[in-house]
Every structure is written in C-alpha cells, then in structure tokens.
Write a structure and sequence with these properties.
CATH architecture of the largest domain: 3-Layer(aba) Sandwich
CATH superfamily of the largest domain: Response regulator
Number of domains: 3
Shape: elongated
Strand content: 15-25%
Largest sheet: 6 strands, parallel
CATH class of the largest domain: Alpha Beta
CATH topology of the largest domain: Rossmann fold
Order of helices and strands: HHHHEHEHEHEEHEHEHEHEEHEEH
Helix content: 40-55%
Number of helices: 13
Number of strands: 12
Radius of gyration: 25 Å
Strand order of the largest sheet: 2-1-3-4-5-11
C-alpha cells in the first residue's frame, strides 16, 4: 500500500514550513508569501499528488468552504430550479467548494435560512424566490451575512441576480396583444407574498394599460408554483361561465402545463380557443402539446452568476447591493401562434 502524502512531505520537499504550505493552499493573503514560493509549493503538490484534507483547509482558512441554497419544498419539482442548481454546481466545482441544499415548507417561517448561517455550516447563502418582508432574511442582512437572492427584493442592501421581471412579463403579454387578443387572463406563478408573483402580475397589468385594455380581476387567478395549481386555477376559470377570455398569460411554465391540461380536458383547443403564454422556458416547454410560447432566460447562467457573486461577496471583493440582470427573449411557439 502506498504511503499517503501529507503536508509534512510537501513542506520537506519544498524546503518550507508546514504553515507556509497551509497558507499557500488556502490562499491566505495576509502572510504575504512571494509568488516564487507559491509556485515552488504548488509544483511539489502536483508532483507528489498531495490532496489537502477538507477539514484541515477549513480550519486554516477559518471557513467551511460550503455555500448554501435554500428554496421552498414545492420548488423541488420545478425544472427551472434544477437549472439553477446546475449552474451553481459548476461554480462550486470551479472553486473547490461544496453546495448544501435545504428547503422550507410552503407557508412556514424561514428557520432553515438562520439554521444554516448561525450554526456556521456555510460561508454564504443563495436564496431562490424570496418573500417580501421576510424577517429571517432581514436578520441575515442586518448581520451582514453574505447573501445572494435569485429574484427581486426591495432591500437594496442585498445582492441579487434576476431579469427585469415586470418588463419581461409585459413583453410576454404584448405578444398576445400583437396577435389581436383583447380578453387576456392571468394565472400567477405564486401567491403575491412572493416578489416574483407580484412583479409578473404588475407586468401583465402594465401591458393591458398601455394597450387601453381594462384590467379584469375576474379572469386572474393565483398559482402556487406547481402544475396542479395551474390545473385547478384554469378549471376554476373555465367553470365560471361569466368569464370570457381568448388568451392566458401563465407566469410560470410549470404552472402553465397544468393550465394547458385543464383546457384540453374541457375539450378546448390551444391556441384556437385559448392561446397560452408561459414564462421561464424550461427545457420541456418546446416539447409540450402544443409547444409552449414563453419567456426565455438561462437558469444555468443565473445559477452561475449567483455563485460567482456570492464568492466575491464572501471574499469582500464586492459590497452588498450589487444587482445583475439577464436579457430575455420571447419564444414564439404553437401555443400562441398556431401552425404557420
């Protein structure tokens, strides 16, 4: 059996102390180690095939080398979240970190947020789909704990990665208006305690206002992130014979799939009877029946941007309050335009 290479072996071969090896491997800048010494140590590390112990690295750097991701339990079935995790994982691997994922029961308090941070389990946190005026999140912000939000949040002292939510939703509805629809309903992606739900509804209302179309609360329903909630919301709309609409903006592809199933179950056709516009462009949207028109932006890139931003925040390279917005594109498919 080959003898395991230790930091002592690296130090002896490089002609430096074990402390210096530790400082180089953990990039401890305050020790002011010369580039020549760093290169010598790293050359020996490669030659000997030394793999640093994770616990030792954490002890030396006073960091866990873990970052956390917290989301709602209902998000775990959301394919867009899988894209976010994919992007975060790429950054975690790039920086030799680990990603810890925790969930919050829908409607519960955000204790998982505080547990991860206050038990020193992580060095920073990414939050997906936050609630406005979340007390636990506000506590982290006040304690200056590194946090990046994927989504919109009114507190300007927190970093975030997002799209311009109201503007993107407005463009989605404008696509329906360009197709001469005047009776356009809406099913939100979430209850309005979540910032994305409010933002997407506001964009829908702005598009109607600009087109001179009166907002009609009777053809608006509120989704809860899931396809089941979309199915139930659309069923409710269709059962009310007083509701008249020829198009529906559903502010989440996942919720839209449920709404489309309800339309089909009612014996109606998409888009001939009801055109459907989604939001998120999840990978299976182009394979739905019919393919779903939607708002495209990259969940993978959003996850990567959030990961890099969090690492820069942890390393004090940026200050809280940085916001990065992605460009969006309207994907025009058969659920709105039919077969051309």
């Amino acid at each position: 059996m080959m003898k395991k290479v230790t930091s002592f072996d690296v130090a002896k071969e490089a002609g430096v102390s074990r402390a210096t090896v530790s400082y180089v491997l953990n990039n401890v800048k305050k020790e002011n180690i010369s580039d020549k010494t760093k290169e010598k140590v790293m050359k020996v590390v490669r030659e000997l095939g030394y793999v640093p112990n994770a616990a030792g690295k954490a002890l030396a750097s006073k960091r866990t080398r873990n970052i956390g991701l917290v989301c709602l339990e209902s998000h775990m079935s959301h394919s867009f979240l899988l894209q976010i995790i994919n992007g975060l994982t790429k950054i975690v691997r790039k920086h030799d970190l680990r990603l810890l994922i925790d969930t919050i029961p829908d409607g519960a308090g955000g204790h998982a947020i505080l547990n991860l941070s206050q038990t020193k389990s992580i060095d920073g946190l990414v939050l997906f789909e936050t609630r406005e005026h979340d007390k636990e999140l506000q506590t982290l912000i006040d304690e200056k704990f590194p946090v990046v939000i994927i989504g919109e949040y009114s507190n300007k002292r927190v970093c975030s990665v997002d799209v311009d939510v109201p503007a993107s939703a407005q463009k989605a509805v404008e696509h329906l208006i360009e197709l001469n629809h005047r009776k356009i309903g809406c099913i939100t992606n979430s209850p309005l305690i979540y910032t994305a739900g409010t933002g997407r509804l506001n964009g829908y209302r702005k598009a109607l206002e600009n087109a001179g179309i009166e907002y009609d609360e009777s053809i608006v329903r509120y989704g809860e992130f899931t396809a089941q909630s979309g199915f139930e919301a659309m069923n409710d709309l269709l059962m009310n014979k007083g509701n008249e609409f020829t198009a529906m903006f559903v502010a989440s592809d996942t919720v839209a799939f449920g709404a489309m199933r309800a339309i089909d179950a009612a014996g109606l056709r998409i888009p001939e009877d009801i055109a459907v516009m989604g939001y998120d462009n999840v990978p299976i949207a182009k394979f739905s029946n019919p393919p779903l028109s939607t708002v495209h932006f990259s969940g993978i890139q959003m996850g990567m941007d959030a990961g890099e931003m969090l690492i820069e925040l942890i390393d004090d390279k940026i200050k809280p309050g940085v916001r990065k917005l992605q460009e969006i594109k309207i994907m025009k498919r058969q659920s709105t335009i039919g077969i051309l």
